[in-house]
Amino acid sequence: MNPNGVASSSKVEEGLNNLSLETSSKAKEEKQQHVECSSSEPKKLLKLKTSDGEVFEVEEAIMLQSETIKHMIEDGCADDEIPLLNISGNILKIVIEYCKKHVGDELLNIYEKEELKQWDWKFIEIERIPLFYVLIAANFLGIKGLLDLGCKQVGKMMKGKNCEQVREMFGIVNDFTPEEEAELRNKNKWRSE
Description:
Layout: H1 9-39, E1 45-50, E2 55-59, H2 60-63, H3 67-74, E3 81-84, H4 89-102, H5 110-123, H6 128-141, H7 144-158, H8 163-170, H9 178-187
Helix pairs in contact: 4-6, 6-7
């Protein structure tokens, strides 16, 4: 305390840090208890068969983030192998890693959510072609969080690029004649300013 009876800013910061650590620890304990409670029940495994024939055994709780698989379970169509004919094994591994990280993310406190957000951005920094296949898989499986994250990453990749660079990135053929392109550029001059 200073002579005026006010706590110094370093003491206040230390107190706040201790409080946030305690809060974070409590949230982790609650999450752990939630996981332990659910782990006492037998874990139901789903078999996911990819387009290249790989079979993945994944806990049902992990894959419930997929709206498609959730509906299959509700409809009783997930008792045997679930064929994922448009998803390869290496792409499904990425999807499963994302889903594992996000199980129970609604129980996280604000600090843990921020850590998860940072993990997401590092996780999604993958090459362009695999990223597009992850987007296709996330869309097919109905994993909104992964789809949103992937779309944001594509937007980040496009930022600051002109039309020709974006066409090259996506393999889009320019089917405009030079006259049509010049007309469009003149008509939409305000966009390039």
